[in-house]
């Protein structure tokens, strides 16, 4: 019994601290936070219009991150090779007459190798090979707010304690990107209309999986297609490295037209996936239209996605949460293999 009481007490305490912090830093339209700006803008929209307490596990992860921030600040304060000037320094950056960004710099170093620098500390379960864009965006906001040139992002692996560090010099192009994102969020909040499903459209499905607003956003619904519909999904390939001659699309559009027509006769919704991103995917669309392929939904590969094969499998898995994926056909055998748990029938269609 005591064990349960203790666990509940930790959760209660974390939630109480979150509520207090939320009361003090209540979100209001016009005031935005650099820490969230790199993630899905639609999720941030919901955080303003429908704030919800995070799950206890998420609060525990935040607390772990906070502990790591403090450990790094203490370690640097005790080091003789750098000089810590401030920790948790509040900063503000005006974006427009109506909108500004407010945040806290983790650590401001008075001196590292003869320079002044900002350090952003990030705890992670896997050290990245390059810094996450959202973290660079946050750091760049602080560099511009404090008029400094050098920023460092320090990753701390929570499991192994290993460190990785990346340097980022102040760059005005980031300020433009940050400003554009703030303005998009601000205008949507003023209009009371959510922005596009950014994480979903850009193939960052893991963000949707963890999103507390997934039910509200409904990212995997297909426009005009009722939940539970039967889908026939066709993957297309138009890249030379898959053995496809330049300018050609596989499966051969005539064969695809026959297969898609048969699926339509059986009452399936036909979904086509292209391994080309927009606007290059327009030529796949023209090849399909030229062969009179009957399809209902067309997905170009999101720009940031590297592997088309894994993207197709990941998307089919998510679509199968809302629909019944009756069949999947693709010229690449590996793609057909990967979707096996989520589909009734698979085919390699050359
Ligand atoms: S479900 Fe995905 S697209 Fe929708 S708000 Fe959440 S992260 Fe963004």
Describe this structure in words.
By secondary structure, the protein is of the alpha/beta class. The chain folds into 2 domains: 208 residues, Lambda Exonuclease, Chain A; 128 residues, HAD superfamily/HAD-like (Rossmann fold, 3-Layer(aba) Sandwich). It is 41% helix and 23% strand. Strands 1, 2, 3, 4, 5 and 6 form a 6-stranded mixed sheet that branches. The longest helix has 23 residues. The mean pLDDT is 91.
Record the SSE blueprint.
Layout: H1 2-24, E1 31-32, H2 41-49, H3 56-78, E2 82-94, E3 100-112, E4 115-124, H4 133-146, E5 150-157, E6 163-169, H5 172-191, H6 198-201, H7 205-209, H8 214-217, E7 230-236, H9 253-265, E8 269-274, H10 282-290, E9 297-300, H11 308-322, E10 324-330, H12 333-338, E11 345-348
Parallel strand pairs: 1-3, 4-5, 7-8, 7-10, 8-9, 10-11
Antiparallel strand pairs: 2-3, 3-4, 5-6
Helix pairs in contact: 1-3, 2-5, 4-5
